[in-house]
Amino acid sequence: MQLKFYKYQGTGNDFVMIDNRQNFFPKNDTKLIERLCNRRFGIGADGLILLENDISTDLSADEIDFRMVYYNSDGNESSMCGNGGRCLVAFAKSLNVIDNDATFIATDGLHHATIDKSGIVSLQMKDVDEVKVDSEYVFLNTGSPHHVTLVNDLEHYNVKENGAEIRYSYLYGKAGSNVNFVNQISENHFRLRTYERGVEDETLSCGTGATATAIAMNIIGKTKSNSIDIEVEGGKLKVIFEKTDKGFENVFLIGPATFVFEGEIEL
Is 87 considered catalytic here? Predict the structure, then answer.
C-alpha cells in the first residue's frame, strides 16, 4: 500500500501530515507511526498528524471544519500540539477544506484559527485557569503539561539531560511533563528551549511550550505585557492573551506554518 503524505514545519517543529478523511490509516499501529517519524528509516518528524472529519461533536457539521489527531514520534497519541495545530490549519487550506478561517476539534477541545496570505497562522489555545508557582519553576497546562524554569547561559545549557531528569522526576510521575528552559532578552522578549516528552529530546520549537512560557513569565512578574515574543531554536513565535480574574483567556499562538514537501511511502 502506498501512503500519500505531506511534510510541514512550524519554526522547525516538523510533522508528517495525512489526509485521513476516508479513515484508512491504521491508527493503532504504534510501530508504523514511529517508523514514519523516524529520521533515518522513515520520513522524519517530531510527530504525525491526521486530518479527519469530525463525527462525534454535539456541534453541527457546518461549525466544525475538521478533527486533529496527533501522535508523538514514539508512535503514541498525545496531548495538544500548538505548532502542529498551526501546521494542520495550513494543510487544511491546501486541501481546500477551509479558506482563511478554521474551527477544529483536538484532544483538548475546540480551537479557532486564521491563516493569512503569507502563511502566518494565529491559533486560539485553551484558556488557562490553574497555574502552580514554585520558587524554582512554574507548572501549567496549555493543552499539554509544561514545566517552565529560568536558567542562565541558555545557549550552552544541556537541555536533553536536564530536561529528561525533570520529565521523569517524582514531580510528574509516569505521565511526565514537557520541560521549558527560558532566558529573558527584554521586557516582552524571551528565548526558549524545550525538552518534549514523546520525542524524548529537545525540539526546535514547541507551541504549547511557548504559550506556557509567555503566561508563566507574566505570572511571576518578569513581564507585564500581554503580547510576548518567544524566540525558539527554529524561529520566532508570538503569544497574546487577556488576563482576567479567572486566569488567562483569548490565548493565541501566532507564527509561520510552512509546507516542506510531499510524497508517497510504501507501508
Answer: no
